[in-house]
Amino acid sequence: MAEIIQRDGTWAFDGTTVRITPGLHRSVPLFRQTYGEVAVPLDAIAGVAFEPERKRGRLRMRLREGADPLLHATGGRLPDPADPYRLIVDVDRAGVAEYVAEEIRRALLLDQIPKEPTKTYLLPGPPVPVSVRSSDGTVSFDGTQVRIDWAETSDRVKRATGPRIIDVGDLVQVEWLPNSGYEDGFMRFVTRGTSFSKLPPEKDPYALDLWGSTRRDLLTALVATAVTARLPHPSTRGDIAYGDGGGHRPRLAASAVPAPADHHDVLLRRLRELGELHREGVLTDEEFAMTKAAVLRGF
């Protein structure tokens, strides 16, 4: 057993699995504490390194492409402190960190673990049901359906449409961008019928606009990951590149694009919905014109 215990968390390697447990110190981000322990099988690991610094160092693990739904869902956009595959190491424990890294590297070599992308997820993602309250509303996922209940501060167009319920079978992918504190983020559920929609997140009834507490809004990545883990693996959808351990934004597969006839039907349906909201007084003339223009640009 190779193990290192730090205020930031614990890494324990038994020869087949690296168990990563977040620390309980207040400096550990809420996301890591909520995500909990991560058991990383050896065949999901592409590499590990210890990066020494003057006052402290970092242990970093790199996973094989496609191995982890968390990295695919977040597209490498998790803030560094929230990354579960990074451990801050005190300078006096640098030797232990090097030992742990070397033991993992030796096992990778002995077991001849390939570095090529995987064709299935090797980590399960968070358990369901999972529910997160964000600045734009509460999003829940029970393993089969996503439900969004809008907050009172949500745009009135969203509130007028009522709760949004989406079957996982209708989903193509989840797009996620964190709220940085300087720029708003979003989480969008892309379905076959909405894959061409370019409504801004604050108006899109299939998207959560993340503009509030960065600490809490980051938890929406839990839902994004749980849903992603239950969608077809990117290798089966023809995604060409989905990142070095999750570093690039996934691209929509060509097979997910509606046929031209479906494309036209979706456009007409969206325009009819907007027209009804306008006639009922939910949308002002200005809001209707802006939203209609956004839909037309998307198509």
Average pLDDT taken over every residue = 88
Q: Give the DSSP E fraction (strand runs of 2 or more residues).
A: 25-35%
Q: Which consecutive residue ranges, at least 5 long each, have pLDDT under 50?
A: 239-244, 246-261
Number of strands: 14
Q: Which oligomeric form is depicted?
A: single chain
User: How many H/I helical runs?
Assistant: 9
Give the spatial strand order of the biggest sheet. 1-2-3-4
Q: What's the shape? A: elongated
- Taking all Cα atoms into account, the compactness measure Rg is 21 Å
- Structural classification: alpha+beta
End-to-end gap: 56 Å
State the share of residues found in helices, binned by percent. Answer: 25-40%
Helix and strand pattern: EEEHEEEHEHEEEHEEEEHHHHH
Describe the structure.
The chain has 299 residues and is α+β, with helices and mostly antiparallel strands. It has helices spanning 30-35, 69-74, 94-110, 156-161, 214-217, 220-228, 234-237, 260-279, 285-298; strands at 2-6, 9-13, 17-22, 38-41, 45-51, 56-63, 86-90, 130-133, 137-141, 145-150, 164-167, 171-177, 185-191, 207-210. It is elongated and about 70 Å long.
